[in-house]
């Protein structure tokens, strides 16, 4: 059975190129194209697609308004097609919050040839989207209220050390999972390093949005900054993020080398650097995502003495990366996304006084 895809975009060129890319895949078929959400509503009823590709900015009805209504009334996998601009990235972050599975970016120049270069990535994202579990959305309270009410206390151990670190990796579905995790972190939690598979330009908007929602300070890593308690550093979309030592301090390091596991930034690169530089002072957390990036790096963390957590299948958008890490014995505990922050803090409170130097 082929994956049925409905394309919604106000650009005739994008509709044509996307149709060509999807139609050339042996396991997919385009069941319709729509220039705006009004036409799309009728085509959804007629074609019952498995996946919708949706432009972010469109006439007649904004893509976000349409997405919000769609996820309430007829939840289905949606892949956003976004402009690589500051406004486009901010709107895309909001789309992921509303329930979009993932997004692809329109190239700034030579859209037709640029989109064709993305063909494999676009097809992969649609395949992943077709397999995810979509949950109906309910009316939510303001995020600021959610943040203030859900922050956990740091479970105090008089010997807890600032040398402890939390190292996080995620991919598909990870923006919301990371947001959920960080919004529960208290302002005095250990320093946090994060690799989320995301293109350049979007990581800055992601960090900025989280910084406004969380009690901790969240920023895009620039390389060379000291890793401080109460701060989270997100890998920029153009480089791998690594943990390094500078004397008695931990610092961030960026590397624009080749992709690892087809990704830059790569979770494996971050986890391996944490194994080398932090050892038993690190706590690893692997969240929702497709593929196996992070599994081997997490195993190296475990071998170096780190304690590792994985998100469970029922709370993952895609149970790929956590499954791989669990399968090779890289994790110590598996828990739902709602439980993970408390479990991590509990572990840190009980282990904080042990062997702080590596």
UniProtKB/TrEMBL annotation:
InterPro entries: CheB-like, CheB_C, CheY-like_superfamily, Sig_transdc_resp-reg_Me-estase, Sig_transdc_resp-reg_receiver
Cellular compartments annotated: Cytoplasm
Domain CheB-type methylesterase: 158-351
Keyword Phosphoprotein among UniProt keywords: yes
EC number: 3.1.1.61, 3.5.1.44
One Pfam family recorded for the sequence: CheB_methylest
Keywords of this entry: Chemotaxis, Cytoplasm, Hydrolase, Phosphoprotein
Annotated active site: 171, 197, 293
Gene3D superfamilies: 3.40.50.2300, Methylesterase CheB, C-terminal domain (3.40.50.180)
Keyword hit for ATP-binding: no
Modification comment: Phosphorylated by CheA. Phosphorylation of the N-terminal regulatory domain activates the methylesterase activity.
Protein purpose: Involved in chemotaxis. Part of a chemotaxis signal transduction system that modulates chemotaxis in response to various stimuli. Catalyzes the demethylation of specific methylglutamate residues introduced into the chemoreceptors (methyl-accepting chemotaxis proteins or MCP) by CheR. Also mediates the irreversible deamidation of specific glutamine residues to glutamic acid.
Entry's free-text remark on domains: Contains a C-terminal catalytic domain, and an N-terminal region which modulates catalytic activity.
NCBIfam families linked: PRK00742.1 (NF001965), PRK12555.1 (NF009206)
This protein's name: Protein-glutamate methylesterase/protein-glutamine glutaminase
Organism: Undibacterium squillarum
